[in-house]
Amino acid sequence: MSTDSSAAADPRDLLGYLLKHANLRLTALTDATLERLGIDSKDFGTLRVLAHGEPASQLQVAQKLSVDRTTMVAILDELERKGIVVRRPDPADRRRNIVELTEHGRQTFDAAQAAYRDAENAFLATVSPRAADQLRRTLRDLLDQ
Amino acid sequence: MSTDSSAAADPRDLLGYLLKHANLRLTALTDATLERLGIDSKDFGTLRVLAHGEPASQLQVAQKLSVDRTTMVAILDELERKGIVVRRPDPADRRRNIVELTEHGRQTFDAAQAAYRDAENAFLATVSPRAADQLRRTLRDLLDQ
DNA sequence: TATTGTTATACTCTATAACTATA
DNA sequence: TATAGTTATAGAGTATAACAATA
Question: DSSP secondary-structure letter at A9?
Fold first, then answer.
């Protein structure tokens, strides 16, 4: 016999299923936590890049986040509409838009950072701190290939 | 100062980024491996459920995989077109379709099972077997909440 | 010619609503 | 009335191609 029909076909045996649904659940948690700040988890990644380091062009932000530059346009359109970021042409290269947090954007990010941390901690609350650290380390190792 | 502008904003600090991109990479690997069999990783999950246990209705398969029944329709349309599964009305309740693997479907699944295992192992090759086991266990614990 | 931002477009995935046939 | 399967539709997410402005 080629397959064991007495064994249950548990989708949780598949690593892809585990990764996908863990991500779905975490995203739902963080989105819910960030909602009152007017952003979601995808926006948070962008704000995080803008809050650290030097002012960057749209393309630089997009590349840091591994998203397409056309996707970046849509994210920034929304954040700019909400008064969280501003775009201005780079005087040194007028093809580029320098993107920066507004004062409101900076405050939003500070609140979002705490909210995101809480959501991630809540998600990880049922596993030991050691297992959570190991999870991050293993996932990083897998992506560093 | 509310944020440390000297720290790099590494997206890999965010668990959501790690989960998403680990899944993207694994899916790309498994899809590539399964391609010569005419299926992808999403089809594989369905075949796996059909290969184990008793013949099931579309809805039962969908629920086991946590996918919507409308999504199941599209997956089965394609698998039936390829001669991998057949649908027949349940004599005991003609609203239901019993879904089964064809002989070709059974052979496809047997080959796919080996291919999927190889792809998953290749993905996990750079981390220790212990870390890989721990990864699965932690993700399961997180989903069992 | 190449690059940045933009727009248009398409393709996948997912969810909802409404329809049909059956119960 | 409720359920299983189907269809239509719409919304996110993502990718490609083409265009305008600038280098």
Answer: -
Ranges of beta strands (E only) in B4-143 are 56-57, 85-90, 93-101
For the question of whether the overall pTM of this predicted structure is more than 0.90, the answer is yes
Q: How far apart are CA A85 and CA A80, in angstroms?
A: 5
- Cβ B123 vs Cβ B113: under 8 Å: no
Closest CA to A26 of A112, A110, A116: A116
| B119 to A87, A135, B18, B46: CA distances (angstroms) | 43, 20, 19, 18
- CATH number assigned to the domain covering A15-143: 1.10.10.10
In chain B, residues 85-144 whose CB comes closer than 8 Å to chain A: 106, 109-110, 113, 116, 120, 123-124, 126-127, 131-132, 134-144
Tens of pLDDT, residues A42-98: 999 999 999 998 888 999 999 999 999 999 999 999 999 999 999 999 999 999 999
Residues packed against strand D, CB within 7 Å:
A 40, 42, 67-68, 70-71, 74, 93-95; B 20, 57-59, 62, 69-70, 72-73, 76-77, 87, 93, 95-97
Could you report the per-residue pLDDT of B42-83, keeping only the tens digit for each?
Answer: 999 999 999 998 888 999 999 999 999 999 999 999 999 999
Q: For position B7, what pLDDT does the model report? A: 59
